[in-house]
Amino acid sequence: MIDHQVRVHPSADRLPREEQLAWKLAAVATGTQETGAIDPQVTAMAVNRVIDNASVAVASLRRRPVAVARTQALAHAGAPGASVFGTAPGVRVSPEWAAWANGTAVRELDFHDTFLAADYSHPGDNIPPLLAVAQHTGRSGAELLRGVIAAYEIHVALVRGICLHAHRIDHVAHLSAATACGLGALLGLETATVYQAVQQAVHTTTATRQSRKGEISSWKAFAPAFAGKAAIEAVDRAMRGEGAPSPVYEGEDGFLAWMLDGPEAAYTVALPEADEARRAILDTYTKEHSAEYQAQAVIDLARRLRERTGPLTGVREIVLHTSHHTHNVIGSGANDPQKYDPGASRETLDHSVPYILAVALEDGEWHHERSYAPERARRAETVALWRKISTVEDPEWTRRYHDPDPNKRAFGGRAVITLEDGTVIEDELAVADAHPAGERPFGRAQYEAKFRTLAEGIVEPGAQDAFLTAAGRLAELDTTSLADLFPAVDTEAVAAYDATLPKGLF
């Protein structure tokens, strides 16, 4: 790996494009074509993530935000076009709109892959726009695989090196850059073209984190889909010869100077050498539970505590000692009263670790629908327990969260339960059971089981088998077979739900 130093430059410096971060990202992406054979582990993990995305997408087909995005997309038919989850096999829409609909379906349940470092990310959000463009442009599964690997490489590098959340900037700014790079690798574009596309994408998708603050709305699901759509449009413009604000990262009125650490900003972004294998996807991990990633270990900890103590009664207070990120984003350190509101949206509840811990302690499990049901959130005994739960930042958990060794990194915490009689019950868990360093790491069997569980009643068993077979052959698929990565569902039921929605402009 090469450590690239990134800092703000005045316009008078005339920073050569080859020294700009956007160029270096583009060079890694376009160089992915030249790295030779792909590591079988990398290919296998890419397959896992295609399966994972489809799992959560089919489970969300009749959720309102997903239906809205789908009906918007269906108003933009295009040829050759791309497929949309939940529609008939022959339906095709313009690729940027397919990316919008499919990206929303993948993100809606907050239930797919994650990478946490200096910032947050869901690298699987790159796959919908890449798949849409691959279909539209007649690319093979092998070419799609190259694009996915490149996008993950760039996404992980940016998340490791540049923190956005400290400045209340939403993490989709890194996503759009990664998607533009993945599209460049997929399409075999010149570095100069990808460089311009990256800058356009970052410039147009920089937004605040208000989408994940207070009363969290459905925009949380739309935001990454918007970034994917914007990246496709940026690549299209760059392919037509259009330029972008440059240097978008280092400019004196640019991203670092005014959105992040200011004119004195300096960052280190580590990128692979030209002939180095692209393996960043192996550093990412998925979710066993439908909740924000930093709640994964907390759910498993609650399940373990319940097995040990049985139903808890007479609780005085529960304090979760955890990292800065967990405390300030999904804990009481966020200072969001909505995180304790029984009438809060699902999007808010899945970013409330006090709520998640209360329900997991009571139920000993977590379900992507039942655990968020309004009647579940309003249960009197749950509300009483919920409001006795708080979080505190523990410097040691913060240190472990940022440990340079991924095998030692911790995303959990220590729960201290104090009963009314003074009894104290304590336990801690560093990583979720499904994490690569956890008690039950996810492998292909677990990804397939997750798909079958979420697809039950939505995708017939035979269609489940057909999808899993196609996904397993990702690197061998021809362009017509990419449609097999969309599981067949009861499209009449989906269309009937769509028909209940209010009409928009399209």
Automatic annotation (TrEMBL):
A family per Pfam: MmgE_PrpD_C
Lineage top rank: taxon: Bacteria
UniProt domain MmgE/PrpD C-terminal: residue ranges: 289-470
Gene3D superfamilies cross-referenced by the UniProt entry: 2-methylcitrate dehydratase PrpD
Domain MmgE/PrpD N-terminal: 34-266
GO molecular function: lyase activity
Family statement drawn from the similarity comment of this UniProt entry: Belongs to the PrpD family.
This protein's name: 2-methylcitrate dehydratase
